[in-house]
Design a protein that fits this description.
single chain; 283 residues; alpha/beta; 7 strands; Rossmann fold; seven-stranded mixed β-sheet
Amino acid sequence: MGQDSLRDGQHVARYYDSNTRRFLALGGGGRSRSIHRALWGPGVRDTHAAANYINVLIGDAVDALGIDSDFRLLDFGCGVGGSLFALAGRFPDARLAGVTISGDQYKLARQYSGQLGFESHCQFHCGDFESIDIDFQADMVIAVESMVHSRSMKAFVENAARHLKPRGNLIVVDDFVVRDPPLNPNDERVLADFRAGWRLTSLTTVPAFVAVAESAGFVLDESRDLSPMIRLKRPRDRFIAATRPFLRRLTAVPMCANLVGGAALTRGTRIGLLGYRWLRFKR
């Protein structure tokens, strides 16, 4: 996949329109409507709890920061609403909103919201989080595994700032390149597979992203490495890694591209090239 196609504003929408229902069916997070990374944190005993653990951490951050119970939270890259539904259950007085660029995810989020009885708590918008302008000023903006899809990190953080109240918080949970340059050819191949497979246009280092966020008026308040909570030796990961040379020829097919990207992510994390980071900024 060429760089021009990766810069197409709709490539992420097409990717998630094609893959979301499969993610929900096969990824282990179907019950929680989660398509985020499973985290095996303290006390986690099953795949449902692992899929929901990132939402536990976000809720814990709300409590630790002493935010009022009727807070407002905006999810940039909300998928089918899994994080918002988990937070709505934990914080019934909160008002929550989500943005997804995928039309299929938007339809599913609204469907699930009705089924769960959260219509009065959660609102959803279909659009590009770099430019969307909604009438919602949040105490907290979250972006879980979505910032790396932005075509412009600067546009992403600036729009987050526009939708945050003064002294609001931005939480970004995502994959970052954590190995110092120069990178060897194998590292570059892993990153190329990861970018192409998962349609990533802003895979970067933590310092580089922090610098962009600071230029938009944010101050880094907390940084955590969540990588140790990820399980990297599942049988399916070994199978995908073995078939990656064949799948690499089929990255135009969304399902094959996802498998190639996932194999690259697993390898990159195992060799210390990639890390899964929690970054919380104060505006």
